[in-house]
Amino acid sequence: MQSEATMVMHRGKLRYTSKGSSGTLQALPDSCCARAMSYLALREVELVGECSLNSKVRACSRELWLMLCEQQWPAVASSEALRKAVMMRHPRDYFIHKYLDCYSPRPLLDLDDHLVHVEIRQKGRSICSVAREARDVFRSGVTEYHEQDGILIEGLRCAVDCSDDDMFPPEASRLGVTYYVIRKSDGRVAILGRDSTFGTLSGGAPIGEGYFKCFPQYPSLRGMLPMNCELFNSFTPYVRGSGAGIGWRDTRKRDNYFEISTAVFVGTDADSPGNDRVPTLYGAGTGKPPTVVVTKGQVEIRSIFMSFSGDLFRQEPTNTRDHEQYLISSEELDLEDIRSVLAQHLRFG
Fold first, then answer.
1. Domain total of the chain
2. Sign of CA pseudo-dihedral 106, 109, 112, 113
3. pLDDT tens-place string over residues 142-182
4. Same domain? 294 vs 256
5. Are residues 208 and 301 in the same domain?
6. Nearest to 235 by CA among 192, 203, 194
7. Hey, is 114 helix, strand or coil?
8. pLDDT score of 283
9. How far apart are CA 327 and CA 177, in angstroms?
10. Same domain, 131 and 64
11. Residue 109 lies in a domain
């Protein structure tokens, strides 16, 4: 009687194997062998499959991987509908896809293999162009910005011309800012954020209004300092026109919509003139450099900070007014979350 032959992929090649092979494991009935192997760790199952062609067949058997699915997710055993769905697809494919998606560590952006390049332009020319190692600018618990995690670029000399309208950020001559992430290993570039009207919808401390005094070096200066504003990011190709956030649907929560928002901060409370609510932590006599320097006709940015937040909505907002109506929760992302988002959603070209 001829032994039953099976074709299997072994060491990169399609080969035929026979169930008539001898050996302790091979001599067991298929069901017994599958039951015995179901007690092994995943790596051990793969090692058994490398022993021989017949072992490879049994290490990939539907019966074995159905048992592994039932052990990992008991609902596969208790729900007939789920069990049928698993069997429609090979249980091994189902297990690997679901396990890797749910249990494997999240890929994180390699800080040693990437650079962050910031380009700020005004009046058609570059007024700031710096590239830094990702490891040097990805910061956790930045105390100057309420102990947030994000990207902190320090040591800048970005002189913003405010003389056209005595405003910061200037309205007569808008700033344009672009954040690039460059992969050093192959030179590929991804745009993290871009805004050609940087600071249009800025918030912060109103210069020369109410409690906040004017800068003595530039008494006619108006606007916001410290300043914060949303920055259009580019994590997904789907861009909504109603806000700076770009997002995707959270399939685990039905129709909920999740988006990552990015915000840029220029200056701190300690940089505001006459702001006695916050101790002066920067500037002369403190040993720490200021984050902005105001002189006649210009504001020189010395550091700039980008933060990331995750916003969960009941459904996708259709305009800015919908944000508060549909918002479920919003929280600042920690450094690991930020690195995970960038690794999964940045598009390098």
1. 2
2. positive
3. 888 888 999 999 999 999 999 999 999 999 999 999 999 99
4. yes
5. yes
6. 192
7. strand
8. 47
9. 28
10. no
11. no
Q: Is residue 314 part of a domain?
A: yes
Beta strands 148-153; 175-183: pairing state: unpaired
**Identity of the amino acid at 309:** S
Residues 164 and 63 in one domain: no
Q: Which residues of 111-150 are buried (b: 16+ CB within 10 A; e: fewer)?
A: eeebbbbbbbbbeeeebbebebebeebbbeebebbeebbb
Structure tokens at 323: 């944000």
Collapse the DSSP code of 135 into the 3-class scheme (helix H, G, I; strand E, B; otherwise coil) and give the result. helix
Tokens 């396990």 belong to residue: 99
- Number of Cβ within 10 Å of residue 184's Cβ equals 13
CATH code assigned at 80 = 1.20.1280
pLDDT at 205 > cutoff 60: yes
Strand 148-153 and strand 138-142: the pairing is: antiparallel
- Beta strands at 167-168 and 222-231: parallel, antiparallel or unpaired: parallel
Q: Report the helix count and the strand count for the chain, using DSSP H and E.
A: 11, 18
User: What pairing do the DSSP bridges indicate for beta strands 246-249 and 257-266?
Assistant: antiparallel
In a domain, 162, yes or no: yes
Q: Is residue 108 part of a domain?
A: no
Residue-wise pLDDT for 42-90, tens only, equals 778 878 887 877 788 888 888 999 998 888 888 888 888 888 988 888 8
